[in-house]
Design brief:
This protein has 233 residues and is mainly α. Helices cover 83% and strands 0% of the residues.
């Protein structure tokens, strides 16, 4: 067999293996974005009744999740650099799964608020490192990869939109607890898939410039502009 053919098959095998990263990436984003952050609006009415809380308290639970995300999103970038992207993603998934499980057994507002906050923290630890890993593995397809990951919002909403009413018909009083438990099971499966199938990109030997002072970073007009746009979104 010609050497060229062997090399071509090996390259195709590697490309196929790396393509599975996109699928796992979508599943990770499904857990972290769709289940941990966006699904609360669907679960909210049933969780509110189950915990016997007011609309104000129910709304605050969603705000607490966003607060957890906001407070830790910059830390996530630092941890990703220090621990590697994969380890940071695994930490985030672990925190999210802990949050899911405890929400499924919550009986008070304050207990729920702690783990809603952790959902936001876990999401922050997952999303930024995930995007970084995928665009490093697929530098020529970064737009396609980011689009695939962001598609998890619609996919997850569609899934939750079918799941919650279905469970509500079967178990009217405990459907919201079962929903969180199902999210937890899916999160654990995705956690182990990430452990087994995702690898960090090889480090490139490049010249590292001295770190800029924090003041220069946070007063940079480009950074402020991007931050402002992201804040609006």
């Amino acid at each position: 067999m010609p050497v060229f053919t062997v090399k071509r098959r090996v390259a195709m095998g590697r490309e196929k293996a790396r393509s599975s990263y996109i699928i796992i990436g979508v599943l990770i984003a499904l857990v972290a974005i769709s289940f941990a952050r966006l699904s609360y609006g669907v679960v909210l009415p049933f969780m509110k009744d189950g915990l016997s809380i007011s609309f104000k308290s129910a709304g605050m639970l969603g705000t607490i999740t966003s607060l957890g995300y906001l407070m830790t999103i910059m830390i996530a970038g630092y941890l990703s650099t220090k621990w590697s992207g994969k380890n940071t993603i695994l930490l985030g998934l672990l925190i999210i799964c802990i949050g899911f499980f405890n929400l499924s057994i919550a009986v008070t507002y304050w207990y729920s608020s702690v783990f809603m906050f952790l959902l936001g923290v876990g999401t922050a630890f997952v999303f930024t490192p995930l995007i970084s890993i995928l665009i490093e593995w697929f530098p020529q397809k970064r737009g396609f990869v980011i689009g695939c990951v962001n598609s998890c919002g619609g996919i997850g909403f569609l899934f939750v939109g079918f799941l919650v009413p279905f469970l509500t018909d079967l178990y009217p009083e405990t459907s919201w607890r079962l929903t969180w438990k199902i999210f937890c099971i899916i999160g654990v499966i995705v956690f182990f898939l990430t452990v087994l199938l995702i690898k960090n990109p090889a480090r490139k030997e490049t010249y590292i410039q001295p770190a800029s002072p924090p003041k220069d970073i946070y007063t940079n007009r480009s950074v402020i502009k991007v931050g402002f746009i992201y804040g609006i979104v």
